[in-house]
Amino acid sequence: MDIANDTYKNDIKTVIVASSVGTLIEWYDMLLAVILAKVLSVNLFPSEGSHFLETLAIVGSSFMFRPIGSLIFGNIGDKVGRKYSFLISLVLMGASTFLIGCIPNFSSIGWAAPVLLLLCRLLQGLAISGEYAGAVIYVAEHAPMEKRGFYTGFIQATVPVGLLVCLGVVFITESTMSEADFNSYGWRIPFLLSSVLVILSYFIRKRLHESPVFAELKKSGKTSKSPIKEAFTTKGNVKTMLKAIFGGNAAQSSVMQTNQFVVFFFLQNTVKLENTTVLLITGIAMFLSVYFYQYFGALSDKIGRKKVLIGGLVSSLILIPLSFYLFMKIGNPQGIDEVHSISTGAILKIVGLSFLLSVAAAATYGPLGAFMLEIFPTKIRYTSMGFAQNMGNGFIGGATAFVTEFLKTSFVVSAFLSPFIGLIYPLVLVVLAIIVNITLIPETYKTDLTTEDE
C-alpha cells in the first residue's frame, strides 16, 4: 500500500498542525503544575513548614499512573482507531487541568485540597499517556518513510514549546499583579486558560480522518481483537518493550526532566536566584532549542535513529554534571543563603549552559518518537509503544524531579557534593541507555510500517 499518495500528501500539513497543537496543549497542561509546584505547596497544604517535596510527589504521581493509562488508550487506539483515542485524551486533560484551577485552598477544605490535586494529576497522567503515542503514530502513519523523523519531529518539539508557552503565561500573569495577589489567586489563571485552548484544538482534530495505515488494516480485518493481551504474549514483544524502555526512553525522559525542571528548581532553591530571573533563563534556553528537536528528528532520517540518540546521551552524560557545577559557580559563588540578583553577564552564561543542555536533550528526544513506533507491529503498535513510552518516560524518567530532590534532602554527603547528589539518578539512567542502545537495539529508520510481522 502506498501511504504517500496525493490525498495524504496534500493533507500532511493539516495532520501535523492538528496533532502538534493538541499535543502542545496537553504538555502545557501537564507541565504547568510542575512549574507552579512551589505556589501549590503554599496554597494546598498546611501553612506550617515547607511542603514542597510532598507537592512534587503529588505532581509526579501523574507520571507514575501513565503506564496504566497507556494500556487503556492503547486498547482504544489499536481496536477503534488512533483519532478517537487522542480525542478522548485531549478532553480528559483539559477537564482535569481546569479543575486544578478550581481547587479551594487548604484553609477552606483542609486535607481535601491535596487529595483533589492528586486526583486531578492522576487524570492528567491518564490523558497524556494516550495523547503522545497517538499523535506520533498518527503522523508517522501518514508520512513517507524517508521523512518519518522529520514529520514526527514536529510532535517532539511540542514538549519545549509547551513548556515555553507555560513559562510565558506564568511570567505574564505574575508580571501583571503583585506577588501577594499571584500567590493568593493569580496562580489559578494559567490552569483555567487551558480550557479555551483545549476546546479549539478539539474541533480542529475532530475534522481529521483515520490514519491510512490503520484504515487499511481495519479494512482488511487484521486489527487486533485483544491489543493488551497480544502486546504481552506476542513472541519477543515484551523483550522489545524492555529494550525501548531502558535503551533510551527512561534516560531521555530523565535528561528532559533534568534540563527542564531540575535546572529550574536548582536555580530557584539552591543557587537562590529570583523567580523572574529563573523563568527568563529557562524560557530563553527553551526558545533557542525548539528548532533542534525537529532538526534531530530530520537528521535521523539520513543517518539513523541510533547515531543521533547515542550522541545526545553521551553529550548529556558530560553536560549535566558540568553545567550544574557551573550554575553554582556563576550564580552563587559566595554560597549566599538568600534570594539574590546576578549581573546580566552571569545570566547570559547560565542561559548558554541551559541552551547546551537543551540541545543535548533535543538529540535524545528528536528521533525517539520515530524510533519507538518503528520497532512495533502495526496492529499492536499503539498499545506496545504507549506502554513502553509511558513506563520509561513516565514511571521511571518522570520521577526524576522528585528523586533528585529526595536524594538531596535524604543523604548526608560533603558540602561540595550536597547540591549535586541528586544528579546520580539521571546519570545512571543515561549510562544504562548507552550500554543497551549500543549492544542490544537494532537500527530502525528504514522500517516499513505497512509490513506486518507474522
UniProtKB/TrEMBL annotation:
Superkingdom of the source species: Bacteria
Q: Check the record and name the SUPFAM superfamilies matching this protein.
A: MFS general substrate transporter
Compartments where located: Cell membrane
Q: Transport: present as a keyword of the record?
A: yes
Q: Does the keyword Transport apply?
A: yes
Q: Which Gene3D superfamilies match?
A: MFS general substrate transporter like domains
Origin species:
Chryseobacterium rhizoplanae
Q: Where is the Major facilitator superfamily (MFS) profile domain?
A: 15-445
Transmembrane portions of the chain: 12-36, 56-74, 86-106, 112-138, 150-173, 185-204, 244-266, 278-296, 308-327, 347-373, 394-417, 423-441
Classification via PANTHER family: MAJOR FACILITATOR SUPERFAMILY TRANSPORTER, SHIKIMATE TRANSPORTER
One Pfam family, please name it: Sugar_tr
Instruction: Provide any one GO MF term from the record.
Output: transmembrane transporter activity
This protein is called Sugar transporter
Q: How does it sit in the membrane?
A: Multi-pass membrane protein
| Keywords from the named record | Cell membrane, Membrane, Sugar transport, Transmembrane, Transmembrane helix, Transport
GO cellular component terms, alphabetically, are: plasma membrane
